[in-house]
């Protein structure tokens, strides 16, 4: 039985903050980003990245615009060390990019780490030591002072080896009190102050103080309170870059990072698509595109998110979840009818607005419901926007028919067709692909007219309405004439044609590409037929023929009567 174990687990104490200001703040600029895909991400893989994959990841990060890239833990393995050396010796680090390497506060390790950076034009050493009471007691066996001394000692060692080995390098320094979120706030501050006393940050030498959740155990607001408290209480604040390193154990890494920014964090460390230890590091794709969708420049290029996803999947060997925010294969796809209907209507409305304003849709504010952004802004197409299942309705079918064939069937036809598609989807239980939708539409409504052959209309159905949609009819100045020609043609043949409509904005592309939808009433219900032909007359005849044949077949099958369906034309 699953029982609550409050003796084992409890919420960390919040920091009393009666004067918190972050809830009223807004994010107006992007933070500095550090990608730790090649370090925290890589160390969490069952099969760490090969040199080629590391290089592909590095190239991707550079191409996206990352300026700070943690490239490994050089003393952890030969391959981490070799990768750092390759980047330096082959001069693969762009001038505006700083690589970072991680190391523990241990003499031998810091020396080797500094050695690994020899020849680098610019780099950062990232020193970490744990500060939480758990860790002090269970792992280090240290009291607070000893734990603080460990961090200070490590900082002095970085200074010592930097001076000895890295004189020509523009070297930055970063310190992380590991398990910060589980550490007493006053102790975190005390350790950071002591580290700063050793590093002596000034205008020329900032210090990056990086606060990790390490294991996410607090709610984002509790973390934000801590960050705001540090932001206000750290000395030498103008020389400190306040950085955060959220993990995602509670599934709130993104919220933690965003609230931390409100609270004063200037830099975020994370991984693309949230790779990293356990439930991952904070996802930089989501964070960046959250900014983008609020109109804030993330400073990172997400214009080809498909390429980013494929590269990350190849490098890590981990698939991105289909529902992953912004990048998942399904996140711009809607299956349910009312969503599809709204997407179709809003897309059409935006296209009309753009046309009226003589501008592109991409110049208008995004106003399509159920879609967080225009998929084209991240290099995704509209093709998979709408997928048809038993949850779909006429709006979705209108979208598919419009998108794939430029067809704009009238509403009543769509209502009928939706019934047919839904019956099939219900029976088969799966998705009906666009190809299947088009095939069903073709088989059901469209009949090629090899010769202008007709069933006799005499004692049968009444042809009520025609909808004409064609590039030709829109393009030619005599479009009224064209419609009149059709009316004449059909009435001459004895059809009682009640109305002819034509589309205002044709989606058919060429003059030779006409769509005509004909409705006839028979046996108390409507039957639709569609003609897709090169000229309006043939398309109209074809549509009428199809509607009549369908009506005739139905009446015959239901015993509702029939009419003379001779194939001989009247004329
Ligand atoms: C939250 C994070 O992601 S931190 C990054 C974690 N990444 C890694 O651990 C990958 C790289 N690390 C390694 O490959 C190895 O741990 C090495 C190469 C650095 C060291 O290996 P080993 O000497 O065999 O040590 P091992 O990892 O088993 O034990 C760690 C020792 O370092 C101490 N230690 C752990 N963290 C730190 C630290 N930040 N600063 C100083 N000492 C530390 C431990 O207390 C332990 O001490 P002990 O030898 O007295 O028991
Ligand atoms: C080294 C630090 C920043 C870390 O990875 C963590 O605490 O999660």
TrEMBL record:
GO molecular function list: 2-isopropylmalate synthase activity
InterPro entries on file: AIPM/Hcit_synth_CS, Aldolase_TIM, LeuA-like_post-cat, LeuA_allosteric_dom_sf, LeuA_N_DRE-TIM, PYR_CT
Domain called Pyruvate carboxyltransferase: residue spans: 31-306
Keywords: Transferase
Entry annotated with the keyword GTP-binding: no
Catalytic reactions on record: 3-methyl-2-oxobutanoate + acetyl-CoA + H2O = (2S)-2-isopropylmalate + CoA + H(+)
EC numbers on record: 2.3.3.13
Descriptive protein name: 2-isopropylmalate synthase
């Amino acid at each position: 039985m699953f029982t609550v174990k409050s003796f084992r687990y409890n919420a960390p104490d919040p920091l009393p903050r009666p004067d918190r200001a972050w809830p009223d703040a807004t994010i107006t600029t992007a933070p500095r980003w550090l990608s730790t895909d090649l370090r925290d991400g890589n160390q969490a893989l069952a099969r760490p990245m090969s040199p080629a994959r590391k290089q592909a990841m590095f190239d991707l990060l550079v191409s996206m615009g990352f300026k700070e890239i943690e490239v490994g833990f050089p003393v952890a393995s030969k391959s981490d060390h070799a990768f750092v050396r390759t980047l330096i010796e082959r001069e693969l680090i762009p001038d505006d990019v700083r690589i970072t390497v991680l190391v523990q506060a241990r003499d031998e390790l810091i020396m080797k780490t500094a050695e690994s950076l020899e020849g680098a034009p610019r780099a950062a050493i990232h020193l970490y030591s744990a500060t939480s009471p758990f860790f002090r007691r269970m792992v280090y066996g240290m009291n607070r002072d000893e734990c603080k001394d460990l961090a200070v000692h490590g900082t002095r060692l970085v200074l010592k080896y930097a001076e000895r080995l890295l004189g020509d390098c523009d070297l930055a320094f970063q310190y992380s009190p590991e398990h910060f979120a589980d550490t007493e706030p006053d102790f975190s501050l005390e350790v950071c102050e002591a580290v700063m006393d050793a590093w002596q940050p000034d205008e020329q030498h900032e210090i990056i103080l990086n606060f990790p959740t390490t294991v996410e155990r607090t709610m984002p607001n509790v973390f934000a309170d801590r960050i705001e408290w540090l932001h206000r209480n750290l000395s030498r604040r103008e020389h400190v870059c306040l950085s955060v390193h959220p993990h995602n154990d509670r599934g709130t890494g993104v919220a933690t990072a965003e609230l931390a920014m409100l609270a004063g964090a200037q830099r975020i460390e994370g991984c693309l698509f949230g790779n990293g230890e356990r439930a991952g590091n904070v996802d930089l794709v989501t964070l960046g595109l959250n900014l983008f969708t609020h109109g804030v420049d993330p400073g990172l290029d997400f214009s080809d998110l498909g390429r980013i996803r494929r590269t990350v999947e190849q490098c890590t060997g981990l698939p991105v979840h289909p529902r992953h925010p912004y990048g998942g294969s399904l996140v711009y796809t809607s299956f349910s009818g009312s969503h599809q209907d709204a997407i179709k209507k809003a897309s059409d409305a935006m296209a009309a607005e753009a046309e009226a304003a003589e501008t592109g849709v991409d110049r208008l504010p995004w106003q399509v419901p159920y879609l967080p952004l225009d998929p084209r802004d991240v290099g995704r197409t509209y093709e998979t926007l709408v997928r048809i299942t038993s949850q779909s309705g006429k709006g979705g079918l209108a979208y598919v028919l419009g998108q794939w064939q430029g067809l704009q069937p009238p509403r009543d036809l769509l209502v009928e067709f939706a019934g047919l598609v839904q019956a099939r989807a219900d029976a088969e239980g799966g998705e009906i692909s666009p190809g299947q939708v088009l095939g069903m539409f073709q088989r059901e409504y469209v009949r090629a007219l090899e010769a202008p052959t007709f069933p006799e209309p005499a004692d049968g159905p009444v042809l009520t309405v025609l909808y004409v949609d064609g590039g030709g009819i829109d393009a030619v100045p005599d479009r009224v004439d064209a419609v009149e020609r059709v009316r004449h043609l059909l009435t001459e043949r004895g059809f009682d044609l009640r109305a002819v409509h034509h589309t205002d904005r044709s989606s058919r592309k060429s003059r030779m590409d006409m769509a005509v939808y004909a409705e006839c009433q028979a046996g108390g219900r409507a039957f639709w037929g569609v003609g897709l032909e090169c000229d309006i007359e043939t398309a109209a005849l074809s549509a009428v023929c199809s509607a009549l044949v369908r009506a005739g077949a139905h009446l015959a099958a239901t015993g509702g009567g029939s009419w003379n369906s001779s194939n001989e034309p009247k004329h």
